[in-house]
Design brief:
Radius of gyration: 16 Å
Number of strands: 9
Helix content: 25-40%
Number of helices: 4
Largest sheet: 4 strands, mixed
Low-confidence stretches: none
Oligomer: single chain
Structural class: alpha+beta
Strand content: 15-25%
Amino acid sequence: MIVREIIVPPEVYAASAEFVRLAYSGMRDQRRSINDKVDQIKAGKVAEWAFCEFVRINASVIFQPDFAIYPTLDGVDQGDIRDSTGRSLDLDVKAVKENANYLLVKKAEHCHSEVYVTVVVEEDGIVDIQGWVRKEVALASLLPAGHCIPGTRTPLRVSNYYTRLFDMRRSNADVLELLQLIVGGKLWKNP
């Protein structure tokens, strides 16, 4: 049986909040609430931790989220998830809201990962591993800046690739395949 719901302890939320405080203390964004941006970054770190825990529980492999703070953007996209030797998995963990319908990937991201994993961070401290998709699917459709996310009135500030969450690989068999790719060493960024 595959465990897909992960309970996040309070100390992970605290570590994520501290990461945001240290890494983004001077952050300014006039177009959106800074609290929304901070909450989004914290949810992303919690999602990365939960994904590491998901792999540990289901595949007995230990990974850690990258909580390093980089002076420039050059180091930021070297990988969300690392092993004890510093090697990174070529995947990007994306936190999505419970009612989200789409995975959004900014067109201008520093590098695009081989695999994208969606994770719902619920308010009750439970994180649910939703599904995954390969880069070819995640980056197939582009919404230009200024266009609205389908089904919403929310215009995008920057161009984003989008994939319907319904189209992601979501079954337990699909998630098992992702775990097999990880355990089999097929998703290393820098082997």
